[in-house]
Design brief:
43% of the residues lie in helices and 15% in strands. It is an alpha/beta fold and 329 residues long. The protein has 2 domains: 180 residues, Rossmann fold (3-Layer(aba) Sandwich); 51 residues, Arc Repressor Mutant, subunit A, CATH 1.10.10. Helix 5 packs parallel to helix 6 and helix 8 crosses helix 9. The chain starts with a helix and ends with a strand.
């Protein structure tokens, strides 16, 4: 039985199918289904289909207990990139500035080391992970709707960037609308494609915890970024740490789990302008507001301001919510 027919029938009926149903309705559907024509339509729209029985189907995803019938693909990346060392980075949609920064930094370093970063194109941590990975390597986005949709719509430009050299992936055919029940199903593919899953900020009932549970069920390693004990955004992740999850302190922790070596980063050469080194040392030690940096360095406000602007241009400092923090390198 054609896996593509199963996927096409699921799209037509609004159902979630892994195998061909034994129903009269499906039998009637098969009488009219023209797989060659359907494939031509996909090709004309720039989509590809990768059946579960195809030798190129990612082995890690094929190994889960409920693999999809196949994957619809959009983008310029080769299917083989899904077989590379892969890490899923997921977390809160309404994440903090810290969570966004950590997700982007981890993804950037992991992609630079040769891993492909998998996430769900959602707001917050997912988007930050995709953007960080795009700075140095490849990323793949897994959708909980048809492969032709950019969901959420505000991430259409991000999806286009991913598709240039990476992949947009979905088990759902073009035209399938997003629905709440499709996202837990999407999460199993995120976890299934990855060797290691990293959780960055998650509330107690976060969808990211579903991804963590699915990864653990498949015997995959789950790593967690520790969070502030007073933040609701950290309740879910800190609960995982209490249960024995491995904490992430730097990208090297994840690379070790992936069996990859970190590339030797270039040692940043700080400009010699007055105050640069002092200001950089303060924000690397802990996030700080401009007036606190002035107080801690003893420098004039104008010198601190100029130093911060220079460090931001060099990519050594980021600023959000009034706080400056050193960028992970």
């Amino acid at each position: 039985m054609s896996e593509l027919a199963v996927a096409a029938f699921a799209a037509e009926t609004g159902s979630h199918l892994l195998e061909a149903p034994r129903s009269t309705r499906f039998a009637r559907f098969m009488c009219d289904f023209d797989e060659a024509a359907y494939r031509r339509q996909l090709d004309q729209r720039g989509f590809r289909w990768l059946a579960r029985t195809d030798p190129a189907f990612p082995p890690r995803l094929a190994a889960v207990h409920d693999p999809p019938a196949g994957l619809f693909l959009r983008g310029g990346g080769q299917v083989s990139v899904l077989c590379r060392p892969a890490v899923a980075i997921v977390g809160a949609r309404a994440c903090s500035t810290y969570g966004s920064s950590v997700a982007a930094s981890l993804a950037r370093e992991l992609a630079a080391a040769g891993a492909i970063v998998i996430s769900g194109l959602a707001r917050g941590v997912d988007a930050a992970a995709h953007r960080g990975a795009l700075e140095s390597g490849l990323t793949a986005a897994v959708l909980g709707c048809g492969v032709d949709r950019d969901y959420p719509r505000t991430h259409a430009l991000l999806a286009a960037r991913i598709a240039r050299c990476g992949l947009i992936v979905s088990e759902y055919a073009p035209g399938v609308e997003p629905a709440p029940w499709r996202f837990p199903a999407r999460n199993r593919i995120v976890a299934g494609l990855a060797q290691v899953t990293v959780i960055v900020e998650a509330r107690e009932r976060s969808g990211a915890l579903i991804t963590a549970d699915l990864a653990l069920e498949e015997g995959r390693e789950v790593l967690v970024v520790p969070g502030e004990i007073t933040s609701h955004l950290s309740h879910g992740t800190n609960a995982l740490l209490r249960l024995g999850a491995t904490p992430v302190t730097c990208a090297a922790d994840v690379l070790e789990a992936l069996g990859l070596e970190a590339p030797v980063p270039p040692v940043p050469t700080l400009p010699t302008e007055p105050g640069i080194a002092s200001v950089h040392a303060v924000v690397t030690d802990a996030p700080a507001a401009a007036d606190e940096i002035v107080r801690r360095t003893g420098l004039a406000a104008r010198i601190v301001s100029a130093a911060l602007a220079e460090l931001e241009l060099l990519g050594l400092v980021s600023q959000a919510d009034g706080l400056y923090r050193g960028v992970m390198t």
